[in-house]
Write a structure and sequence with these properties.
Layout (H helix, E strand, L loop, with lengths): L8 H13 L1 H22 L8 H22 L18
Helix pairs in contact: 1-2, 1-3
């Protein structure tokens, strides 16, 4: 099974790398990430902790939010989250 076909962190990474860098470069980036995982496993005995695609998406979102907050602060702005809209109460 290809990593891109399964709902995993590596599959999501492979798809994102393929989109960002293009076909062959994205494959190269994913192969490099796999090589780092295997190296850490063999060298340090650090096991790979399987991460779900949703957890990876949340990690990416948090990183982008931190970057955005930092850049806004550098430009003198302050970011505040927008409260989610409250659903109106349904009358019977």
């Amino acid at each position: 099974m290809e990593p891109a076909a399964e709902q995993s962190y590596l599959g999501a990474y492979l798809e994102a790398a393929a989109v960002a860098a293009g076909g062959p470069e994205g494959d190269h980036a994913a192969a490099h990430k796999l090589a780092r995982i295997v190296y850490n496993l063999m060298r340090y005995g650090v096991a790979y902790a399987k991460q779900t695609e949703a957890a990876y998406a949340e990690q990416v979102r948090e990183r982008l939010e931190r970057q955005l907050r930092r850049r806004a602060q550098e430009l003198g702005f302050e970011l505040r989250p927008i409260a989610p809209p409250v659903a109106p109460a349904v009358q019977p």
